[in-house]
Amino acid sequence: MIGVGRPAAHAGTFYPADAASLGELVDRLLAAAGPRLPVLDSSRVVGAVLPHAGLAYSGPVAALGWAMIGAIRPATLVLAGTDHGGRTSGVAVWTGGAWSNPLGEVGSEAVLAERVAALGPPFRADDRAHLGEHSLEVQLPFIARACPRARIVALLVGHGYRAAPQPGSGRLGSLLSELRAAGERVLVMASTDFAHYPSDSVAREINRFMLEPMLRLDEAELGRREAELERRGTAGLVCGMCGVDPTRFTLAVARGMGATRGTLLGEATSADAEPRDTRRTVGYAAVVLH
Which of 167, 166, 188 is nearest to 112 (CA)? Predict the structure, then answer.
């Protein structure tokens, strides 16, 4: 435990460093997202899968999820991040202080974080694994604006976490289900982008290919499809989902919380923000789990 909070590492790159500019951008994205949301029974929503690229690219899609989550007014958000740097092989639990961003601090729910770490392997307290990773940091401006009173439990799910069934997901799902049954407004969220660097048309095909099992909460099939994409050797393709591990983990946790399906709120590729660049793109999608 480093105990001094988690400083912003990507302000000025993935999102504006200036608080006024960032607040204006996030408010505009959330306002545009509201009219596009489907009508769902918010009491049944237990989680979401949202993108984490630069806000200029994935922000309009991520805002769909955060606009819906904001309407639920959760007290606690359990965030499962993508481990881009290979910092952990299990699930690293942040047990330190608040997370900083230009819009202020987002508090850490320390008591629940300690309970999650105490669930045992693959969970373990490891603050240092979170330093420098952007997948959860990029969510903070949305949390600060859409759910300013929420506190977070930050998890980093490693690339070695690909066994089926997902180890530990049942224990975490049961814990969060118990909290919800006691009246706690707790949601779980996975942070992932989709296809990395194929052409725009291929990225959109891969979005659909990976979304189908996600909407069925079928984490095993999602893993099989990621492996299939790796075998295909598609031109330019690095991965089908950079966060397939936290997404599979979150689908299993959400099912343990009572979710039975996912609903797609919206999808896009980076070419929607940069129409002149369709040769090397990244895919995005926002899904709520209920």
Answer: 188
139 within domain boundaries: yes
Give residue 120's domain range.
Answer: 19-289
Predicted confidence (pLDDT) per residue in 3-36, tens digit: 569 999 999 999 999 999 999 999 999 999 999 9
Cα separation, 202 vs 58, in Å, equals 18
Whole-structure pTM over 0.90, yes or no?
Answer: yes
For 251, half-sphere exposure in the C-beta direction (CA atoms, 13 angstrom radius) is 27
Predicted pLDDT of residue 162: 66
Cα(141)–Cα(128) distance, integer angstroms: 22
Confidence of residue 166 (pLDDT cuts 50, 70, 90): confident
Residue 6 near residue 110 (C-beta atoms within 8 A)? no
In a domain, 231, yes or no: yes
CATH number at residue 221: 3.40.830.10
Decide if 9 is inside a domain: no
